């Protein structure tokens, strides 16, 4: 072979190796088809999925927290209406309108009509299918409140919670101010709740100031009933003997006798002891005498 051609060939190879080149690879058609299918499936799933908007979420019937939220809002609204003096009943649609809950679904409406409002202790259903607030006590003014306190005092039922009166009586603060001289307020030390009692002025007594001073000076907070009874016995006072809880007396059981019972023989037909009866010839014999 010609040496000149060989030299040109070597120079061409060196130049080709010295210059960088970028090759474009062909994509596989199968992979391209798979990618296009995945994109189409994802787009179709996104388009068919339900949109969770605010209005759509409110109509979903599976959320129990949303149901009870609607019910709690209705009860609070009916209570505030009663405290403001609005005592006329309302339909379910009117209640939802006043509470701005008209976008409630049909399932929740049916649940409110058949179960929730029917069984709620704070809601009362009228004969015509309307609803009204049900307070603890049926009192409308200060006269009915005073009458209720007098009945509790006469029957020995005790006092009434202030929160129950505030819930039951419309415009409660105005009525309590006008009855300030007729009501006694006592705060319960356990939970700091205020209790109302009727101020019966006929039971007031004039107590000597010396006795009041002695009563207030005597501290019995750190003493129990046993120590108080011991102190009174030392002073010669035995008035607490019959007070306090008594221990129940257990009746004694009678001991069961272990004697064996003797069963008595039956005494029937003793007057026929000497009579022999035979069924062959229908004869009776008594003391040697036979009778057919």
How is this structure best summarized?
The protein has 292 residues and is mainly alpha-helical. The longest helix has 20 residues, at 29-48.
Features:
single chain, 292 residues, mainly alpha, 3-stranded antiparallel sheet, 11 helices, extended
Please tell me how large the radius of gyration is: 50 Å
Identify low-pLDDT runs. 45-62
Report the strand count: 8
- Biggest sheet character: 3 strands, antiparallel
Protein name: Transcription initiation factor IIE subunit beta
Function: Recruits TFIIH to the initiation complex and stimulates the RNA polymerase II C-terminal domain kinase and DNA-dependent ATPase activities of TFIIH. Both TFIIH and TFIIE are required for promoter clearance by RNA polymerase.
Subcellular location: Nucleus
Keywords: DNA-binding, Nucleus, Transcription, Transcription regulation
List the helices and strands and how they pair.
Elements: H1 3-18, H2 29-48, H3 54-58, H4 64-83, H5 92-98, H6 106-119, E1 123-125, E2 131-133, H7 142-155, E3 160-161, H8 162-168, H9 172-178, E4 183-187, E5 194-198, H10 209-217, H11 225-234, E6 275-278, E7 283-286, E8 289-291
Antiparallel strand pairs: 1-2, 3-5, 4-5, 6-7, 7-8
């Amino acid at each position: 072979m010609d040496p000149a051609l060989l030299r040109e060939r070597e120079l061409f190879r060196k130049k080709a190796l010295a210059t960088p080149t970028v090759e474009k690879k062909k994509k596989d058609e199968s992979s391209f088809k798979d990618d296009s299918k995945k994109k189409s499936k994802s787009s179709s799933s996104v388009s068919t999925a339900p949109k969770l908007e605010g209005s759509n979420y409110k109509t979903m019937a599976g959320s129990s927290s949303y149901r009870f939220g609607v019910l709690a809002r209705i009860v609070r609204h009916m209570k505030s209406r009663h405290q403001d003096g609005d005592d006329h009943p309302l339909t379910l649609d009117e209640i939802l309108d006043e509470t701005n809950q008209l976008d409630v679904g049909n399932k929740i409406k049916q649940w409110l009509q058949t179960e929730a409002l029917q069984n709620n202790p704070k809601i009362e259903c009228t004969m015509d299918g309307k609803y009204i607030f049900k307070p603890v006590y049926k009192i409308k003014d200060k006269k009915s409140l005073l009458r209720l306190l007098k009945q509790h005092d006469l029957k020995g039922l005790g006092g009434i919670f202030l929160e129950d009166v505030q819930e039951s009586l419309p415009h409660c603060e105005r009525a309590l101010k006008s009855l300030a001289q007729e009501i006694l307020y006592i705060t319960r030390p356990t939970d700091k709740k205020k209790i109302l009692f009727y101020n019966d002025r006929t039971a007031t007594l004039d107590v000597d100031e010396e006795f009041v001073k002695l009563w207030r000076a005597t501290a019995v907070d750190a003493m129990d009933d046993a120590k108080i009874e011991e102190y009174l016995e030392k002073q010669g006072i035995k008035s607490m003997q019959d007070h306090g809880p008594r221990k129940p007396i257990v009746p004694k059981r009678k001991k069961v006798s272990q004697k064996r019972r003797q069963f008595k023989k039956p005494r029937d037909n003793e007057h026929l002891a000497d009579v022999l009866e035979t069924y062959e010839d229908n004869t009776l014999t008594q003391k040697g005498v036979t009778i057919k």
